[in-house]
Amino acid sequence: MAFPEPPCAECAEQLEYSVEILRYVCGNFECSALGMEIPVWRALQQSGLAAPATTGLPRPVRGGLPVPWVAPWTADYVFWFALDGARCAAAHNQWLCQVCGDELPDEAWVLATPEGQVLQAALHKKCKDLALEFCPHLSSADTRAVPMLVSRDALSADGHPLRDAGPSDPLYLQQWEVTT
Ligand SMILES: [Zn+2]
Ligand SMILES: [Zn+2]
Questions:
Q1: For residue 43, with 0-12 CB atoms within 10 Å meaning exposed, 13-18 middle and 19 or more buried, which class applies?
Q2: Which residues make Cβ contacts (< 8 Å) with residue 91, sequence separation at least 6?
Q3: Which of 151, 153, 110 is closest to 132 using CA atoms?
Q4: How far apart are the CA of 173 and the centre of ligand 2, in A?
Q5: I need a surface site. Which of 5, 14, 16, 114 has the fewest CB within 10 A?
Q6: If you measure from the C-alpha of residue 50 to the centroid of ligand 1, how many angstroms do you get, rounded to a whole number?
Q7: Helices (H) and strands (E) in the chain, counts
Q8: How close is the Cα of 15 to the center of ligand 1, in Å?
Q9: What is the 110 CA–ligand 1 centroid distance (Å)?
């Protein structure tokens, strides 16, 4: 699988990928975007390398694993540990499933840490089971996240009940918490 090498949107030189920050950076000293951190999904989108977002089940499979809707990917490379900010914001704002991208019923599942921090967005029951089966890190000793069935009323974003919170922004995603 070829690692994607998108060009800089400003100077068209190839961006460098930083494994420390999991973002692309322009290293061209003559570019106005020198040193600017560019999220993976943005770089892929701006360069036209992003694969189209496919919704629904079954998910496309890469390397034997189902590709979640919110994962940034190209025709032949998946950034498993990055999030597509635009899709994640849409999942937040429109109550869509982060695994399949389809609409959710009034009550849906979230994976929440013992402190109530939601791992990004909500999911269908089937998609939650899929995520836990194929992404064991979601419920590992690091996060200790457990599935919870919630409605939007049980969630808050950055300290505000979800209904009063401003919309999630692709570059400043909401952090959801379970409040009840
Ligand atoms: Zn540049
Ligand atoms: Zn789903």
A1: buried
A2: 69, 70, 97, 98, 101, 120, 121, 122
A3: 110
A4: 20
A5: 114
A6: 19
A7: 3, 10
A8: 7
A9: 38
The tokens for 138 are 């979601």
Q: 170 C-alpha to center of ligand 1: Å?
A: 21
Q: pLDDT truncated to tens, each residue of the chain (180 aa)? A: 679 999 999 999 999 999 888 899 999 999 999 999 999 999 999 999 999 989 999 999 999 999 999 999 999 899 998 999 999 999 999 999 999 999 999 999 999 999 999 999 999 999 999 999 987 777 777 778 899 999 999 999 988 999 999 999 999 999 999 997
What 3-state DSSP class applies to 3? coil
Are the C-beta atoms of 56 and 101 separated by less than 8 Å? yes
d(CA 123, CA 107): 10
